[in-house]
Amino acid sequence: MDIPSKQWAQVIEKPATDVIYKQIPVQHPGPDEVLVNIKYSGVCHTDLHAMKGDWPLKSKSPLVGGHEGAGVVVSKGNLVTEIDIGDLAGVKWLNGSCLTCEFCRQSDEPLCPTALLSGYTVDGTFQQYCVAKAKHVSKLPKETPLDTVAPILCAGITVYKGLKESGARAGQTVAIVGAGGGLGSLAQQYAKAMGLRVIAIDSGEDKRKECQEMGAEVFIDFRKSRDLDLVNAVKAATSDRLGPHAVLLLAASELPFQQATSYVRPHGTIVAIGMPAHAYLKAPVFNTVVRMINIKGSYVGNRQDGYEAIDFFTRGLIHAPVKVVPLSDLGEVYKLMEQEEIVGRYVLKMPQG
């Protein structure tokens, strides 16, 4: 196909300023890179943090955000052998890594000290054409629906990795905090596909309905519960009233990160995934020690995690509830995010041509 010299994109001109919908040049791939004609891109809460400059991590400026892009490879460098022009591909948060450091050698590529981050340290997927390292794009099977696979490329991989990190086994119970959001709706499905039982924690009747449709056995509305009531309700939702074996923290606020140690089962695992701005993890030392609670962070996934998460999707075990809107509507999506009015995942459709 003919590759244009200009394209439409959503650009953050300066840190902590709103996105601007404008035309920018199309980049050319380097020797180990591919150029992907993005068809759809999911919108992640991380993208909002990037726009607002919430994190203590320097970002590119000006910046094109986005890191859940699904499209078609239209050009590639002369060193690329693992994917061909015309193949479907996904561009993820991890745009590239060195592949030679200790972390990369041990399949912990997200911890690479020189990792490239889509939509943060390099331009991401809120544009029609995006460059990424060939070894880190995910080759997608033919006929993959690109609109609904887009959220799998970050949200799906992230929660799937978190569930693996929790160590929870089939038949055990996991509490998912923020279960009605974009991450949570996928986490519930992966948990169910992995044989886990789900306690969904969120608020509102719309999210209650969605969580029940996703297979949650219990829904707990945190806004209708005081701290002690919430703790007792979560414990009571397990058959022996000892609490869930694992907790996935997907919330965008700090309080849930402080509450989890009060209701997780002894020897249980708390996995922090959500990253509310300026928040801290706090836990009582005595109870954490004598109940042998494991608290850990989980940050996206490696290339194999990506392959496995996408495979769950292509086998029909994961359904990504999405609302598709034009790329030009990104600013409105961010407003809804800030108002906590999003159920499921918004996906941007790129302009044609």
From TrEMBL:
Claim: Metal-binding is one of the keywords in the record: yes
Molecular functions (GO terms): alcohol dehydrogenase (NAD+) activity; zinc ion binding
Domain of life per record: Eukaryota
Listed SUPFAM superfamilies: GroES-like (SSF50129), NAD(P)-binding Rossmann-fold domains (SSF51735)
Keyword entries, A-Z: Metal-binding, NAD, Oxidoreductase, Zinc
Matching InterPro entries: ADH-like_C, ADH-like_N, ADH_Zn_CS, ER, GroES-like_sf, NAD(P)-bd_dom_sf
Pfam families given in the database record: ADH_N, ADH_zinc_N
Key word Acetylation present: no
Names of the cofactor(s): Zn(2+)
Enoyl reductase (ER) domain segment(s): 16-348
EC number: 1.1.1.1
Main EC class the enzyme belongs to: oxidoreductase
GO cellular component terms attached to this protein's record: cytoplasm
The family this protein is said to belong to: Belongs to the zinc-containing alcohol dehydrogenase family.
Protein name in the entry: alcohol dehydrogenase
Lineage: Eukaryota, Fungi, Dikarya, Ascomycota, Pezizomycotina
